[in-house]
User: Which sequence fits this backbone?
């Protein structure tokens, strides 16, 4: 085994996983048939035939013309994937780390370092005659037929005795036009640099290729997908055993379209690369933050800023007030007064460009109409209808949901019935008064009354009342009075006829009870409030869940969130604060659809969990809206908010992340962040290149020495654009379509990519660059998920806080 990076001293580390790269893992004995001969001799003694030589033949087996799917740990890009892969080098990961070095390009000799017998070749549509659509198709054939001579066919040169197993067993082959083959295939000296071994420590949190513990061989393609045209590609892991002469001819450029190179395809798949016009994740996010002049964009959700100077004839004070409203995220919309006059009103949805004004204190009966929430700007004679519109919208959404309407109405019906039953218990037991009329009740009396009310409203109320009577001696007195009356039971009737007294009938008694019940419900005691809320809590859970989703803006029309397209143009990112008053009005409108009178309003106020006042300040929530093709190009885009900066920062919970449309992403945060990180989703290990500003292709440089191996050099890339403005294109060969897409490694030449990359690293004082091998190249080509940091800019003293985004990384 040869290692140019010591795996114990130079691991590549990442917060998600840790792995070590090694140049290769050569077996002690390669695959093939071998003869071993043993002889013995004794000095100064002729043993004759007594100690005859002994020979044994043995075979080391390894895959040759076919590969079991269990040997393939993962491929990247995934089969059938459709995305922007223009910066990705396809690769295949093999479970056996020895496999690429088990066989040889030729049967004779063993040069050092040994070239592997596997290569991953990428073919675009129209390049393979048998697979014009690049679907990853192959042709079934036996190993014997593969090695049979035919006109115009170049095939591997493998002796019959070196064929492993049954020569008539089926395998899959690809026929490659000679000119396409010599363009796409790596040069013989480049093959070893496109394979390496990695030792992985696992992390189950990754998607796509799950990094699993163990050692793996990795074969990387040398061709990048076309960056200008949507193209499907077929990837084939091919066997180059016995192909030394074919590779020599390809190196010399003498193969033509008149011949075809026939190779065994051990594993095949296809994917489609769709170039992103904005440069993929990196280009689109950069466009979010900076304009064409490389100036910071205004990232707040509002209309474009108006000129500071008023137009001719405009009132400067009115113009300044209007600009202030627009800067806060408001929008003037047409409005008709109740008198029929046409005017305008300010509207702002739940998203604001500055911390929103607090909603006034909730009235005793709650917010029961939109008119209560209209704000009148007396100085200018116009209304602000944002909160009122939220109340009306909440009411409409609730009425449109039949299940919610029925559940809420059932809660109110049960609340009325339960409250009446509790009130009757208290009035019947004489527990409906909290203090005597003169107000001289002691604290002890009040506490005792509250305790008796609680018992009367709890489980087994009449049983508990009897227990109380027994405890205080009342039951004994009643029993003595019944068994030992003061007058004889059989006393003669009074000679004086008794006068009949008219007693109120049942209707009158019912009216009296109803009146006392109504008085009690108008100001119920604390025990009744608590008991009523407890009895109705379970029935209120589905209502509360629906309203909680509503507060997270589920079902709210997009036009209510962003009333003007100019606030969120295509390919943009906008930050906002969340207005808690708007959300309160929205929920109040929804919860009010089942209130039919003062009793319902009072019951909701005292027993509904969604109507209880919270003494704490409303939460400081915020969020981000993204309108971009990136939403589809990068499924699973990560948006991570943080409180604080640098290593001391703390993550903020994400309340909701949802795609509101094919190109619109909404993310709500539980607090106002100081930093927001946008990141590609972790897709396992990937190899490829990077993009600098102007979409110039480069390779982002990483350290190769000591414990810091794998860490990025901030702002350092290969090549140095100051001296090579064309970027990596200088080190790319042309593909069959004439586009620079193939890595021109040329390890034996100073002008090749490999030595030039090593020289660039040496300029950065990287000692390992002097012996630049496959492991070192793999470290440089690792494409970790890209990320972009947006920081909130502190406001100057005496000015409102600015939320203009800045690129930090």
Assistant:
């Amino acid at each position: 085994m040869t290692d140019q990076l010591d795996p114990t001293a130079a691991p590549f580390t990442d917060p998600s996983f840790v792995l070590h790269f090694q140049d290769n893992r050569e077996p002690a004995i390669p695959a093939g048939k071998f003869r071993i001969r043993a002889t013995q001799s004794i000095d100064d003694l002729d043993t004759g035939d007594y100690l005859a030589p002994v020979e044994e033949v043995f075979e080391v087996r390894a895959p040759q013309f076919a590969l079991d799917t269990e040997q393939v740990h993962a491929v990247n890009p995934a089969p059938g994937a459709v995305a922007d892969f223009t910066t990705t080098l396809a690769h295949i990961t093999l479970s056996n780390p020895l496999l690429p070095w088990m066989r040889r390009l030729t049967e004779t000799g063993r040069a050092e370092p040994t070239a592997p017998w596997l290569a991953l070749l990428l073919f675009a549509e129209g390049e393979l005659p048998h697979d014009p659509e690049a679907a990853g198709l192959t042709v079934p054939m036996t190993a014997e037929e593969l090695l049979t001579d035919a006109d115009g066919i170049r095939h591997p040169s493998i002796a019959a005795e070196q064929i492993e197993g049954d020569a008539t067993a089926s395998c899959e082959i690809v026929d490659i036009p000679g000119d396409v083959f010599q363009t796409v295939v790596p040069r013989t000296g480049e093959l070893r640099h496109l394979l390496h071994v990695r030792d992985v420590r696992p992390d189950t949190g990754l998607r796509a290729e799950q990094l699993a513990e163990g050692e793996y061989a990795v074969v990387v393609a040398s061709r990048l997908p076309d960056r200008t045209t949507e193209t499907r590609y077929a990837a084939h892991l091919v066997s180059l055993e016995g192909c030394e002469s074919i590779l020599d001819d390809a190196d010399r450029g003498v193969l033509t379209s008149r011949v075809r190179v026939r190779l065994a395809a051990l594993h095949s798949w296809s994917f489609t690369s769709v170039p992103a016009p904005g440069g993929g994740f990196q280009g689109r996010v950069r466009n979010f933050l900076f304009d064409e002049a490389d100036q910071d964009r205004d990232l707040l959700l509002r209309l474009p800023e108006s000129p500071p100077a008023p137009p001719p004839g405009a009132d400067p004070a009115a113009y300044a007030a209007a600009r202030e409203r627009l800067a806060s995220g408001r929008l003037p919309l047409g409005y008709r007064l109740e008198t029929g006059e046409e005017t305008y009103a300010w509207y702002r949805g739940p998203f604001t460009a500055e911390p929103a004004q607090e909603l006034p204190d909730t009235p005793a009966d709650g917010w029961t109409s939109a008119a209560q929430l209209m704000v009148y700007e007396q100085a200018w004679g116009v209304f602000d209808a944002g909160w009122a519109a939220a109340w009306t919208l909440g009411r409409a959404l609730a009425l449109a949901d039949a299940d919610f309407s029925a559940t809420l109405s059932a809660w109110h019906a049960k609340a009325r019935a339960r409250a009446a039953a509790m009130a009757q218990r208290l009035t019947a037991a004489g527990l409906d008064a909290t203090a005597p009329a003169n107000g001289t009740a002691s604290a002890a009396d009040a506490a005792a009354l509250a305790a008796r009310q609680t018992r009367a409203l709890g489980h087994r109320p009449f049983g508990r009342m009897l227990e109380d009577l027994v405890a205080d001696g009342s039951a004994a007195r009643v029993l003595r009075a019944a068994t030992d009356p003061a007058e004889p039971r059989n006393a003669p009737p009074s000679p004086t006829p008794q006068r009949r007294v008219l007693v109120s009938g049942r209707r009158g008694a019912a009216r009296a009870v109803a009146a006392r019940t109504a008085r009690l419900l108008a100001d119920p005691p604390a025990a009744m409030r608590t008991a009523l809320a407890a009895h109705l809590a379970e029935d209120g859970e589905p209502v509360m869940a629906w309203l909680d989703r509503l507060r997270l803006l589920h079902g709210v029309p997009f036009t209510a969130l962003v009333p003007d397209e100019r606030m969120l143009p295509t390919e943009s990112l906008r930050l906002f604060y969340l207005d808690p008053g708007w959300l309160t009005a929205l929920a109040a409108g929804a919860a009010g659809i089942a209130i039919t009178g003062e009793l319902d309003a009072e019951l909701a106020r005292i027993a509904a969990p969604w109507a209880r006042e919270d003494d704490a300040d409303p939460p400081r929530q915020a969020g981000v809206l993204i309108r971009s093709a990136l939403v589809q190009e990068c499924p699973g885009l990560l948006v991570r908010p943080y409180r604080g900066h640098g290593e001391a920062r703390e993550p903020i919970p994400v309340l909701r992340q949802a795609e509101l449309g094919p190109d619109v992403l909404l993310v709500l945060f539980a607090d106002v962040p100081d930093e927001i990180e946008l990141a590609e989703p972790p897709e396992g290990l990937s190899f490829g290149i990077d993009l600098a500003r102007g979409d110039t292709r480069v390779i982002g440089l990483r350290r190769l020495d000591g414990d810091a191996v794998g860490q990025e050099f901030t702002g350092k890339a290969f090549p140095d654009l100051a001296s090579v403005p064309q970027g990596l294109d200088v080190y790319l060969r042309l593909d069959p379509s004439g586009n620079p897409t193939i890595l021109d490694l040329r390890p034996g030449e100073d002008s090749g990519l490999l030595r030039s990359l090593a020289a660039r690293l040496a300029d950065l004082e990287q000692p390992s660059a002097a012996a630049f091998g496959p492991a070192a190249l793999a470290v440089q080509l690792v494409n970790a998920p890209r990320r972009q940091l947006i920081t909130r800019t502190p406001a100057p003293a005496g000015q409102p806080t600015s939320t203009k985004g800045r690129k930090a990384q």
Summary: The longest strand covers residues 260-273. Residues 402-428 form the longest helix (27 residues). The mean pLDDT is 81.
